[in-house]
Specification:
The structure is a homodimer. Chain A is α+β, with helices and mostly antiparallel strands. Chain A is about 55% helix and about 10% strand. The longest helix of chain A has about 40 residues, at about 380-420. The first copy, chain A, starts with 6 loop residues before the first helix and ends in a 17-residue tail after the last helix.
Chain lengths: ~600, ~600
Amino acid sequence: MSHVVDRQNLDFLFYAVFGLEEILSHADFVDYDRAAISGILDTTQALSERELAPCAAELDANEPKFVDGKVVVPDRARQALQACASAGLFAAMFDAEVGGLGLPYMVSTALNGILGCGNLALANYLSLTVGNANIVREFGTYDQKRCFLPPMLEGRWFGTMCLSETQAGSSLSDIQTKAEPADEGGYRISGSKMWISGGDHEMAENIVHLVLARIPGSPAGVKGISLFLVPKYRVSSDGCLGEFNNVAVAGLNHKMGQRGTTNCLLNFGEGGDCIGQLVGEPNKGLSYMFQMMNEARIGVGTSSVMSALSGYLFSLDYARTRLQGRRIRDKDPLAPQVAIIEHADVRRMLLAQKAAVEGGLALSCLCASLIDRQRMAAETQRDDLALLLELLTPVMKSWPSEHCLEANKLAIQILGGYGYTRDYPVERFYRDNRLNHIHEGTFAIHGIDLLGRKVRMQDGRALQLLAEKLAATIGRARDCAPLADSAGDLEGAFDALKKATAAVSGCDDPELALANATLYLDNFGHVVVAWLWLEQALAASAALADDRADYSRSFLEGKLAACRYFYRYELPKVHAGFTLVGSLDDTGLRMMPQAFLGA
Amino acid sequence: MSHVVDRQNLDFLFYAVFGLEEILSHADFVDYDRAAISGILDTTQALSERELAPCAAELDANEPKFVDGKVVVPDRARQALQACASAGLFAAMFDAEVGGLGLPYMVSTALNGILGCGNLALANYLSLTVGNANIVREFGTYDQKRCFLPPMLEGRWFGTMCLSETQAGSSLSDIQTKAEPADEGGYRISGSKMWISGGDHEMAENIVHLVLARIPGSPAGVKGISLFLVPKYRVSSDGCLGEFNNVAVAGLNHKMGQRGTTNCLLNFGEGGDCIGQLVGEPNKGLSYMFQMMNEARIGVGTSSVMSALSGYLFSLDYARTRLQGRRIRDKDPLAPQVAIIEHADVRRMLLAQKAAVEGGLALSCLCASLIDRQRMAAETQRDDLALLLELLTPVMKSWPSEHCLEANKLAIQILGGYGYTRDYPVERFYRDNRLNHIHEGTFAIHGIDLLGRKVRMQDGRALQLLAEKLAATIGRARDCAPLADSAGDLEGAFDALKKATAAVSGCDDPELALANATLYLDNFGHVVVAWLWLEQALAASAALADDRADYSRSFLEGKLAACRYFYRYELPKVHAGFTLVGSLDDTGLRMMPQAFLGA
């Protein structure tokens, strides 16, 4: 079995649940049919299995080092990334007109996920470069696109996003990096940026940093932040590489996981002039960045899902072969030991992982499909699709970072003592995934975004759109006898969500209203994932009823079981959660700092 | 502030909640009063802060290595442990008649915890040695005690417990190590033991292994396992060290955390005769081991609590000083940033940690006090105390390993990106703590123990004893107006527990009955910890009402807030949990192995 993807499940989500066939019928994707998509998935799977996965442990054990002014990464990493570049994977999501493969977003997201499942630390370089190039494509000038897009889409130049500074992490309004207009054109960038993934290394000919900075005289706060293209090596107007642009590595961060992704403190303009080009208009940098970060967040959420998939597949394989103990009824000590998958609690832990991973992957496909469907939709529908995606983005970013991380924890548990050693990869998957709770906006930040902004947008229209989607699914499930109970459970859970939302909306103290926003997001995510499990169960039921189904019976029965698991073991938790949120509990808010320990 | 203990809290638990003063009044503890205990705590705290904590990061980064046939640990580790030995801490829990300090178990457990909070990897050597010596004390012959106890209590010889083998982890009935009677006396031990913490190193003059093995001709399964004392270097009848006893290191395990505790695969009798002495009677080895392991489990649970305390104290300190963002109402980007403890979600995460850590520590004190109180009790009461402890042991071992681990996760979250780096200790605390879910019996094993055995013992007498304790607390809380609601909540939660227990007891399919034993244990633990929070709140209320209280007002108010937190944010979750367990849900049990992925 593959340890980087479950192709049957991907096909099921693509075609049986999220309508990829219909998306492929759009003029933009005329070059692709199901067979062509399958071929690209084959290539990506092979790359992930043969190039990326085999060096994941090595990269973790031998993290990038700063030697003689250079950041050194094991050479196998460069080779693996070049193999991805050669296969065109840096260009997967871009339209053919800029040199891309022109794949649907749902597919390109899955491709990145397959690479991340094999080796998240390496796949990050690709994702960052793609995200970076996408900003250039969207907001860059003709010349910027001409110079920067081709080498990034070819995987010769890599990209980074430089937002945080040591004193400005979650609080971006406090960034201080300066951009002063230079006489020779462009801007002179000076300042330090923290947590820069892929910030320096020797694996690419150039590194293109997208840097948030302030132009002197700009307004304070987020309204005075501009965005700059700042290459490691200067780029002439004909796209040739020039001299070093004084982007200096001040230090490497040594992380718990994702160690193969270099993470740097960068000093801009320390040893000499560092020249950047303005992207778009001054003072609109944050809005550009966020527009793209929303897509990046689908990527981060998907990475989290795929880290958990790594652990799920590994622990499933292990559970099928590791012999330990006997069935509870069997008291004969001389009877042979059984595979641990025979133990109820091991099955429960595998089902919990399956529910989280495949629920999370469905969420990823849904969000990506909303981007694809915006292309296809009539003008009037497009705003609704965009609005729904805006609502779901904090869920996509955050829910997997909690529940797929929990899945990684269970994978360790299934391997027992072995899982706790570095001889097996499951502890590494956990360590890798732990970052996803923090970067691209912490869980708490997204909770505030969801409860403080997203559910209130346009008088709650986004939430209303979600309600309509759920109602449609609930209606179909009511007509499918084995799923009728679940339909009622989902309706009840969504009612609880709406009540909590209304209670919070009625509170005019914003601090109190948002005091439990994190828990709101967490429980909101459970409702969304429960909805997507019901959608999967409906699709599985339909396929089971159809003798010409493309999926094995055991696979489809597994889908029904995982849905049942989610509805019995997970969804009921939301009632306690929403009751709490709706009660506007202020226990945390009112806790005086000195009362934690006592004076 | 100290980062290894919260002394005010320890005093509160000792004296205001668990009656240490009364325990000290017992004849066995006549040498100790509150001042003397305080002095020993001072010494231990200083050792932990000055000797153990400072080398914790170094030990993690430079784990023990196998070089030229020797296991090499950084020398600071040996020095730190010798400082503990010099202070008498290896002897803390033993009676004066065998050379111990004769401290109450509640106190010696806390001392080990304080060391573990500073450096869990090092404190393990002490705990293992103490546990080992305790078996010798309880079941050893006069000569065994004479030869082995003094050097272990002086910390010159260390101890290990050798249970698992590669094919026999959770399934101890499958161990194969042999012990054949030797002509020269004793037994010739041969076989391999896996996961041996402290299995080899050069930090002690000798290492005393307690080894489970089979004497040829013994019954199959757990009824044919005997216990042997197997020193690394042979010990003459006058206690002198002799030649190497052929306990060979076959390899070191490289763990996710607790890296400073060597963990070995040991081969016994590979290069020559390995001679062991039988402890107690043949074939009773497992019962001896378990008798002591129950005390070890208080230690493991306490270690988990203390790992979480490390993270709580560190993240609390950080949250008070790290500036980031502004209060939600404050829209002025030029206003100074505030300490992150001002943000509601950071307070929530700190409260969650406090509730887990101080709830877990209360559980530890309770379990330890039950050992102390057995000494003091009349014969008729003693069995009840032992029975209650038996019931609580799986909870003590397991609840912290889940919820205090979650606390460690939150500590990382509070530090954000910094918490994800190895420049800060919180990710190490998480890694250290992750083991506690696995060793000394996995969470699942303890779930089966609790639901399959402990709650059924003597027709449910243990559970009845717990019910009486809870009823007493509930009664007192009803009379304390601010806690009356919580009293009702606890009663409701315990009712749910009883209903679930009854439903399971009525099921005659043992596999189905125990299919959700893990969740039962988890929710059972929540009820127990909720009870202990109500006890703490009652004690805090009483102290607040008393003008001559020994604790600061803010500390006592913090206790009330943390209790409220637990009752509002945590306890309500048990209803979904117990409903599920009581429903005898078989979703996991019936899941066919091939349905996880599909054929």
